Amino acid sequence: MGRTDRAGRVIAAPPAAVYDALTNRGSLETWLPPDGMRGRIEWWDPGPGGGFRMVLTYLDPADSPGKTSAATDVVDIKFADLVPPERVVQRAVFEADDPAYAGTMTMTWDLNADGDGTEVTVSATNVPSGIDQAVHEAGIASSLANLAAYLEAGDNRP
């Protein structure tokens, strides 16, 4: 059993808007890549049992070598559970030759109403051993900050 990494944040948007941003292709491409990366979705199959393939490219690969190539992380995501507007569970598999990145990581996004906003808690379980915990948790926190900025701008809601 692998380790579990976590991060959370309150976002000034209702749970339905947060859920939509977690299940909308254009939204995910905009906010999901953490700082220092950009993302592109290669294929998209929304809904239960579907998923997507995201190519994450490091803006400066010298500081952060990729898992798939020198400058990229490629990850196949499956939607394991979709419970609008409360939860999104994803199964993530990195494309990598290094066995330290092998296995299926589960990302659970729990959304709980918090006043006029949403408390978003992300738990990543069975994290591959090659992913540094502090870096991973900082990356999740960065994605959550991007999500907050995206939704709180008001005109970017899916």
TrEMBL record:
Belongs to the AHA1 family. It comes from Amycolatopsis marina. Pfam families: AHSA1. InterPro entries: ASHA1/2-like_C, START-like_dom_sf. It comes from the Bacteria. This is Uncharacterized conserved protein YndB, AHSA1/START domain. Gene3D superfamilies: 3.30.530.20. The lineage of its organism: Bacteria, Bacillati, Actinomycetota, Actinomycetes, Pseudonocardiales. Signal peptide: none annotated. Residues 12-152 form the Activator of Hsp90 ATPase homologue 1/2-like C-terminal domain. CDD domains: SRPBCC_CalC_Aha1-like_2.
